[in-house]
Amino acid sequence: MTGDPPSTTRRSFLAGASSLALLAIAQRVCGQTRSSPADEAAIEALIGRMTVAEKAGQLSLFADPIRIGTQDRINPDAGPKIDENLAQRIREGRLVGLFNGTGAAAGRELQRLAIEESRLGIPLLFGGDVLHGLRTVFPIPLGEAASFDPALAERTARAAAVEATAHGLHWTFAPMVDIGRDQRWGRVAEGAGEDPHLGSLFAAARVRGFQGRRLSDPDSLLACPKHFVGYGAAIGGMEYNSVEMSEQTLHEVYLPPFKAAFDAGAMSSMSGFNDLNGVPLTAHRALLTGLLRERWKFRGLVVSDYTADRELIMHGVAADEREATRLAILAGVDISMQSDLYNQHLPSLVDSGELPVAVVDDAVRRVLRIKQLLGLFENPYRSLDPAVERRNTRTTSARQLARESARSSIVLLKNRGDILPLRKAGQKIALIGPFGADVANLAGPWAPFADMRDAVSIEQGLLDTLRDPALLETVKGCDPEQEIRGGFERARAAAKDADVVLLAIGETQDMSGEAASRTDILLPIVQQKLAEIVIATGTPTIVLLRNGRALALEGAVRDAHALLVTWFLGVETGHAIVDILFGDHSPSGRLPVSFPQSAGQQPFWYAHRPTGRPQTTAEDPYWKARYRHVSNEPLFAFGHGLTYSRFEYGELDVGDGRMAWDGSLSVRMKLTNTGPREAEEVVQLYVHDRVASLSRPVRELKGVQKLRLAVGASRDVSFTLRRADLCFYDAQMKLVAEPGEFSVWLAPSAASGVAKTFVLESPAPGG
Ligand code: BGC
Question: For residue 113, is pLDDT > 70?
Fold first, then answer.
């Protein structure tokens, strides 16, 4: 037996209150993510008073059945119905909290039930999917990663936290830090793209932004890097599919963003739906406990993904729900999301001796520690104040930030003849395509709390900006995936009649996101047809792509005068796009995912290994590692993005070209803005280990600097490389750096730049 039998007597309630008070006192002296010995003692005392059923309750999370809010696309109802008996569940302490419901007043009432009417008075934890804003929607995470500006992501995450906590949330299931190298996978949209270095910078920045200064601050949102781990490598890019990968790739590519997030203070994580080399993550003890807790010393909690514990049965590693429960908790999944399995099976598993109660206690300890760090024991009503909710909803400053982050996310891929920027007056503009006036596809695939009432379409942005709005003609041309009667004819006529066409084409938001994998990454056929018709008129055409992944661009679209990637940019879409189109701001975004030549090249990413027969030039098809009809060169490389100025990269300076074993190497170059405008350049540092015991990627990103330079200005750009930047996992899975020759580039993309070589020297004898 572990604790008192359930009782609702006054006496036991008061006893519960005293442990709450003890926790509250301890809370005041704790730091951001560390609990004091007094906190820990208070938690132990509380655990000592809990029944196993109450413990199971603290490990069971449910979708909020009554405060669903503006969500129109929710998870399948795969869990138990808890709406009729929600109050009773709370009184009985049979849930740790709720997720994906918002509303301060209603949340307060639910919290009151937990505090005043449950035996132990343990506060509820309210979570939700806040990936890129709550009501005020910022660009999708992939889009924002294109800013190559983690500080910006930190600011949008902070703003999201302020709004989300005002609406009663304590916990966001974000950032999503899965690396996405196969663009067929729909969830590429939710992450920071294909690169572990960039992914790590964004993971850490977002954690800092969400969690703020101290977790106990009322506007701090507990971060939850997800989905631990490898989920993005689903075979064939098919959602929820199995993952097969080497230990080396796991540790070098897929784990680093998680490590960065935990190092930045993230105190929770969500395990992935996927299996990895046959072991579903929900049952992956080696990773959840061995790596995460024991090696990385992670002290936070792990929550399963939605009903993923029950899905162990479908994975074929558990015979029934009871076994699934046991596997998940033993692996290190502290909280079961939505299946109710822990409530149903933990008590009897403990009773029968199949599960040591110490395992359950460990999980409960981690959960209570989080509640305590969030300040919930001291102030259970934190983040549940309707006045703050009113004040901090859709603020002007959040809205301004939405515009800034949206325009920083736009990537200019091509600008033939410097057709951009456009003049605000004196020319007829035809806005053609299904996304010109569209407001239904601005938020992106997973912004379940978005308030898009006054979101700005491209058309609206133009009307707000053009001196003579009568010079704008908007024609839809077609629906995203089907023709409309007379659409092509109207589009052709409008294009002919205009001085310039803005062609708004791409993906709807439900073509990406969860459960939205595509077999190809082309524009929908009907939109490709529309593009062919419009571009054939000869009117200069600027393509505005809307997309949640890299696309394979074909035909006339490639020949357009200008191409801009505009992702799903959120509430300020139209304004951000006009900021760039008319040159009030120069574009500064860069691709966080490679654009291939052909859809069939997926997965396609820049940091691949060289092969024994690498293609040496784009024209070299013979007996080389490439497909018959396309070159391996990306159509647009990772890191690529133009602006309205030009930057000249000076010669690379690596000093004497030698890095001592315990030393560093400074890599310098003079950058000059030789173009006509002040603009920003993203200087990228890449390395390649030329000869190593394992074949190393052709290039790997190791540093990024985004710099603003006035016209004619120069700047000495300098990076410092250390041995740690050159490490990899060898055949024995030892993290090593191997002395020898390396290439280094400072570059505007993964396919260009100025290069030198340097040598990592051997350690001094005895060193
Ligand atoms: C998704 C998670 C999400 C959860 C709760 C799942 O289907 O994979 O990313 O946090 O639902 O909405």
Answer: yes
